[in-house]
Amino acid sequence: MSKKKTTLWNKKRKNYIILICLLCVAILATVLVGTVGVLSWFKSSNYVKTNVMVSDFKAEVKTRDNTSFDSANTYSKNQLVSLAPLYVQFSTLENKETSKACLRVKMFISATDSEGTVIEAPDINFTLSDGWVEHEDGYYYYTSALNQNKQLSFIGSISVDNSIDDSVKLSVVAQAETVQYDRATEFFGYDPTS
Question: CA angle 44-54-47, nearest 5°?
Fold first, then answer.
């Protein structure tokens, strides 16, 4: 190889090495800036302030005989009506009587015919106990803040459209959710206690 070709090849090689080094430095800088940004986000007082645990409370809907709704259970219309009154068992997971909670419950209803085919769920009316309101989002909200273990009367009676055949099986799932009192608007989009 001639000296001119060798020098040209060494220059290209040197340029490639410089380019690779610059790329490595750029990648390293990006990783460091990203890591510092993420770490500062985790340490910021704003993050700590808004990352309040929302699981200090527990709520479960129970039937008059103190059993929970189970989505595996199905009921005829008469069986469903006989489950009332319904209660919500509210409890604090830690003994924090200074913490207050807001509570909401949503009832999911499905129906199947005698052959097991999913059909449109019939109209089911729930008569709410005092202290509960139905909101436009389909949830039932308890209107007082809670701060101690309590069994709350929830639904006084259930009625099902009489035209529904007795062979129709109804499945009811009750989803109870709690959040800290001062976080209700943020998490629920509605503050039932105001």
Answer: 10
Query: Which residues are 80's β-sheet partners?
Result: none
CA distance linking residue 190 with residue 143, whole number of Å: 11
Which residues on adjacent β-strands are paired with residue 34?
none
CA distance 169 to 164: 10
End-to-end CA, the chain? 87
| 130 CB-contact burial (10 Å; exposed 0-12 / middle 13-18 / buried 19+) | exposed
Q: Which two tokens stand for residue 167?
A: 């062979």
pLDDT tens digits, 27-64: 766 665 554 443 333 333 333 333 334 446 778 888 87
Contact 57, 170 (CB under 8 A): no
CB atoms within 10 A of CB 29: 10
